[in-house]
Amino acid sequence: MFTKACNMPIKRYNPTTNGRRKSSVQSFADVTTSTPLKALTKPRKKFAGRTGGKITVRHQGGGAKQKTRMVDFRRDKFEIPAKVATIEYDPSRNARIALLHYQDGEKRYILASVGMKVGDAVMSSHKKGPMEPGYRYPLELMPEGVNVYDVELAVGKGGQIVRGAGAAAVFTGVDGEYAQLRLPSGEVRLVARRCMATLGQVSNPDFRLVRWGKAGRTRHRGIRPTVRGKAMNPVDHPHGGGEGRNPIGMKHPKTPTGKPALGVKTRRRRASDVFIVARRAKKKR
Fold it and tell me: What is the pTM of this model?
C-alpha cells in the first residue's frame, strides 16, 4: 500500500489550448486507490434541482454519473481501534475520505484529515486519549485552541458542520453546559459540551485553488449556466426588459420571484439563534 499523506498540490498544464491555459487540476497524489469498497457505495439519483417535477433550485442538471459513498458521520464505534486502509476520492464532496478497518472486522468510510495516511490509527472515545488528527472525542475533553471538524450540533446525531475541504473550527473552551467554537465563517457559536468532534482539519485544503478553466468542466460537475436577470425579458425576471445595456432600473435588486436580494438578510428567526455568540463579519462588495 502507498503511504502518501493527505496533502494535495495543484497541477498545471502547458497552455496547449485556450481551456488548458486558464485551468488547473487536482493531482490526486494523495489518493491511494481508484476503486471504492462496493459494499459502502450506492447509486446516486439525479433530480436536477427539481421538486415534484418543478425546478426549485436553478442552475443544476447534467453532470457525470456518480456513486455515493456511505460516509460515517456518527462514528459511534467507541473504544474500538481502527486503522486507515486507504485514502480515496469521493465525487460527492471536495474532501478526501478514508476507509477504516476496525479491530472487530467492520469497515467504514470517514472524512479524512490533513496529514492522515495509510496505516494511521484512529478511534472514537468518551475517554481522554491521544490528541492526534482523526481521533474523535466529546468537546469537553479537548484542550483549548485545537482545530476540530465534523462537529455535532445534537448529541448522537453525527457531524453536521465543518465538513468542507480544508475547513476547521477552533475550540475556544467550555462555559457551563456548552462549548464555544469559532467557525470557518468567523461566527462564534455554542455547542453542547458532550457533542462529538474530530481533531484536525478536513483534508484537501488546496481544492479552493483549482481553476476550472472552461465551461465543460463545470457542466461535468452538474452545474448549468447562470444567466443575468437584466439580460432576460420582463416576463422572466424582475430585472428584465429595457433597451440596450440598461441598468437594473429598480430601487432594490430582486430575485426571480420578486424578493429583495444582494445584501438582504434571509435567515428567519430560529430557535438556534440563542447559540450564536457573534455573527460572521459582513463581506464587503
Answer: 0.88
Cβ of 181: how many Cβ atoms within 10 Å? 23
Sign, CA torsion 17/19/24/30: negative
SS (H, E, C) 138-191: EHHHCCCCCEEECEECCCCCCEEECCCCCCCEEEEEEECCEEEEECCCCCEEEE
Q: Are 258 and 234 in contact (CB under 8 A)?
A: no
Q: For the segment 173-215, what is each residue's pLDDT rounded down to a tens digit?
A: 999 999 999 999 999 999 999 999 999 999 999 999 999 999 9
Which amino acid is residue 166, in one-letter code? G
C-alpha–C-alpha distance, residues 234 and 231, integer Å: 10
At 285, the pLDDT band (50, 70, 90 cuts) reads low
Domains in the chain, CATH or no CATH each: 10-208 (2.40.50.140), 229-272 (4.10.950.10)
Please give the biggest Cα pair distance in the chain. 71
Tell me the CA distances in angstroms from 18 to 11, 21, 208, 224, one per residue in order. Answer: 17, 5, 21, 21
pLDDT at 129 over 60: yes
| 57 Cβ contact partners less than 8 Å away, ≥ 6 residues apart | 49
Is residue 201 a contact partner of residue 149, using CB atoms and an 8 Å limit?
yes
Closest CA to 277 of 192, 188, 172: 188
To which H or E segment does residue 215 belong? helix 215-220
Cβ–Cβ < 8 Å for 62, 31: no
What is the rounded CA–CA span in Å between residue 5 and residue 117? 5
Environment class of 216 (CB within 10 Å of its CB; exposed 0-12, middle 13-18, buried 19+): exposed
